[in-house]
Design goal:
The structure is a single chain. This protein has 261 residues and is an alpha+beta fold. Helix content is 23%, strand content 27%. It contains 6 helices and 12 strands. The protein has helices spanning 7-18, 72-77, 82-92, 168-173, 178-190, 248-259; strands at 2-4, 22-29, 34-42, 48-49, 52-58, 61-68, 96-100, 122-129, 135-142, 148-149, 152-156, 159-164. Strand 3 and strand 4 (48-49) form a beta hairpin. The protein is elongated and about 155 Å long. The termini are far apart.
Length: 261
């Protein structure tokens, strides 16, 4: 459903533009008259917010089909905040602006532009089953400016049967808030099967070296061009001298010498 900007939101956005507090950081124009715009708005007390818009230009009218911001004015009720209004006026002028109101349906994201909490900022506090066989999950989500919210879900398989949160968006509109959605993504992601381990690479097998082809008859095989050492001549063993037999006189002299020792 398309709605016109409330006067208070338009006036607040106009003041940001008049005080030069709005910057366009990224803009993409498409051929079907669709524009994606991102920006930042300098606010009081040094805060900086980052609105994001998707708009369709229809003549003099600008229709905002999707929007998001990191401020609590948006996070409380998914309404079109003054920062989105300021960015729209800076990007498309102060003509007629209408926007598509969000529905806050459970189970899915209302905005493709909405920033999701990082996985390490979503903590599962408890996860079990009740008497009806429903999965009951409680968690906490660390948000901007030090805020902590506590979403609670009831699931049957992957279907949300009930949810609640302590944030203002849930209390004002009972919408499926970003904190419930982040917890849902966390618990469903944990149930995914682990990726199979990569197979070990196959061992490389050495290719056998092909045997040399036999040389044709009548030809000599090619020999390697290396200098062959001359064969060593075998050593001739020295001839052993055979002992000469002693004559009688020599034997008597030897015995006499032994006695005198």
């Amino acid at each position: 459903m398309h709605k016109s900007l409330p006067n208070t939101t338009r006036q607040a956005g106009k003041r940001y533009c008049q005080n030069d507090k709005v910057r366009i950081t990224q803009r993409q124009e498409h051929t079907d008259h669709v524009s994606n715009v991102q920006g930042k708005v300098l606010c009081s007390f040094g805060f900086v917010h980052h609105p994001r818009l998707r708009a369709v230009l229809l003549g003099d009218q600008t229709v905002i089909t999707d929007y998001a911001c990191d401020c609590y004015e948006y996070n409380d009720n998914s309404d079109f905040c003054s920062h989105c209004a300021a960015l729209a006026m800076r990007a498309f002028g102060e003509g007629e602006l209408v926007y598509q109101q969000k529905t806050g349906l459970p189970g899915g994201s209302d905005s493709a532009l909405e920033q999701k909490p990082e996985a390490d900022r979503v903590i599962v506090l408890s996860d079990g089953q009740n008497d009806e066989g429903q999965r009951c999950v409680q968690g906490k989500v660390l948000c901007s400016f030090g805020f902590v919210h506590h979403p609670r879900l009831r699931l049957r398989a992957s279907e949300v049967t009930d949810y609640t949160c302590d944030c203002y968006r849930f209390f004002e509109s009972s919408a499926f808030c970003p904190h419930c959605r982040a917890l849902l993504t966390q618990v469903l992601g944990q149930d995914k099967p682990a990726a199979p381990e990569s197979e070990a690479p196959a061992l490389e097998m050495e290719c056998p070296v092909p045997a040399a082809e036999p040389a044709a008859l009548g030809t000599e095989p090619d020999l390697p061009m290396t200098e062959s050492a001359a064969p060593e001549e075998p050593e001739t063993p020295e001839s052993e001298e055979k002992p000469q037999p002693l004559d009688r006189e020599s034997l008597d002299a030897l015995l006499e010498e032994i006695r005198n020792m």
